[in-house]
Design goal:
alpha/beta, 5 helices, about 170 residues, 2 domains, Nucleotidyltransferase, domain 5, six-stranded mixed β-sheet
Length: about 170
């Protein structure tokens, strides 16, 4: 299945998680974006992740869902522990574009306020409109992360040169 063509059905439980340093917030919605469980905290620990897993299993049973997908807005490296845990338990993880989360949050209530519990719901609903990419850490997860970090570092090093070229071209006009 293509990363951008993840099919949500009536049997899918969507879990939106706002990632933070110590305490994440999760929210359960159905395929239509209806809230099945309001946002609740998850601690950045094995015990916290285990509680999340049990909550997911309980919600799937309570709401008659046979599939689950977790959507996160990646924040630094804090999402990695959760990603490894989910992968160990066979739960697919998708990442949503932070720009879409920000815009959707403002459209939702016309307030640009930042609130983790609110963000978890927005992340879950944005996942449904297709602004996401599937992530699999596959045995080489840390290599992929290192590769992405090196790529970002290279871009940051080239940024001042690009800015100088842009300024020079604007001055010539």
């Amino acid at each position: 299945m293509s990363p951008t063509n993840i099919l949500l059905t009536q049997q899918t439980l969507v879990v939106g998680i706002d990632i933070a340093k110590r305490t994440h917030y999760a929210c359960f919605v159905d395929d239509r974006g209806r809230v099945l469980r309001k946002s609740f905290p998850i601690f950045q620990s094995k015990e916290g992740f285990q509680q999340l897993y049990e909550a997911i299993q309980g919600a799937m049973q309570a709401f008659g869902k046979s599939q689950v997908i977790v959507a996160v807005e990646p924040t630094g490296h804090y999402w990695l522990n959760l990603a490894y845990f989910l992968e160990e338990h066979g739960i697919p993880l998708v990442m949503v574009n932070p720009a879409y989360v920000c815009r959707s949050k403002e459209l939702d209530d016309n307030l640009p306020t930042k609130h983790d519990a609110k963000d978890a719901l927005v992340i879950a609903t944005v996942m449904d409109i297709g602004q996401r990419s599937r992530k699999s850490l596959g045995g080489q997860g840390i290599d992929n992360v290192n590769e992405m970090l090196q790529d970002r570092f290279g871009k940051l090093q080239r940024q001042p040169q690009s800015e100088e070229k842009l300024v020079d071209s604007l001055v010539m006009c």
